[in-house]
Amino acid sequence: MTTNEPRPGHDHPGAAGQRPLPQQANPTWLGRVQPASYRRAPANTRGQFEPALPPALPGGRSSAGVFGLVLAGGFLAFVSLFLVLPFLLERTGISGFVIGFIASLIPLGTVLLTVRFIDRWEPEPKPLLLFAFVWGAAVSIAVTMLIQPYFSLVAGPASGLDYTTFAVTVQAPVVEEFAKSLGLLVLLLFAPKHFNGPVDGVVFAFTIAAGFAFTENILYFGRAIAESSDPGTDLAVVFFLRGVMSPFAHAIFTGTTGLVMGFAARRGRTGLSVLAFFVGLVPAMLLHSGWNRMGQDFLAQYLLVQVPIFLLAVLVIGLLRVAERRLTRQRLQEYAAAGWFSAAEVEMLATAGGRRSALRWAKSVGRGAQMKALLDAATQLAFTRQRILSGRDVPAHQLDEQHQLAEIAALRAAVVG
Prior knowledge:
Elements: H1 13-16, H2 64-118, H3 126-159, H4 163-190, H5 198-226, H6 231-244, H7 249-267, H8 270-293, H9 298-337, H10 343-350, H11 352-364, H12 368-389, H13 394-416
Helix pairs in contact: 2-3, 2-5, 2-6, 3-4, 3-5, 4-5, 4-7, 4-8, 5-6, 5-7, 7-8, 9-10, 9-12, 10-11, 11-12, 12-13
């Protein structure tokens, strides 16, 4: 590991372009590093340290920017409710709304548990996940309701389709995906520190889509109660179609946009990220339209097209998680070479088996919460280094790095004492 580290005095970007990258500096396609951007991890000049595991500070620390974004999102959601809630109640009635709300919690829980699983390695701040959910559940619904009439007026006649076909296969995919993904663009522009890769994009996209599908399911389930002569049967059918067969439909649609935007965010260029927003909308709208086009041969298309798409999404997410782990391990190894961790600590902090063993030990001595927080902190440090090596906002991320290293060193000393 250390035999290929750059020599002191050769850390500046210009020199890096004259030599190969250190061995395994690019362990995965998830975070490629250009030779000109590589720099060695800062050396630990504090001397020897005890290889212990420190308790981390309780809870996460949200920046003022994150707080402001969440506050703005809450305000927009509150305003949106004045448009969305009357719309739902008018079409479902009180009883339909209540039953639809309760029934919608089931597919919502399925998607959010999946989000939690995907997000386990590098958890996103809970306030930002809350922002994503309320954007999907309220703001994107309101945006959809406001835009749809104008889009129909402008694009409907030009499409040459009858209104029903146009509304289902063109209007809904275009307007709904734009409204949902607009929340991703807001997150990317105003919380770039937490939206810096494809996994982040998928997590935020799934959360937004979960909120959107939750509100939409209230409408569909509630209407099955309010407009049917046999509400029990109709609700069961609609719930099976939306809550059992397709709880991830919206998540996969919007997830493609989040994935594309996440890869662009790795490059750290605002213009490229905005372009990725529009590029990512294309597959999302096509997938959404393809889903809505399924008609009499619904079951055949579901099995032959939609199920393979779902399995492909599972595969992509699995590859992203593996790539995240490899990247974390490599970046922490670079800190170990600089004297911040022992090799054993890197294995513990950056491998699934090591984390499980560490948590079991910590829980046995009453320090499970502290260990969990430390694992999160080490992962954040690894991804801070990745942002430094990407060459974007290097001074700001180096300052974050120094704070994180100092905190880790102090916490290690605290647990030894």
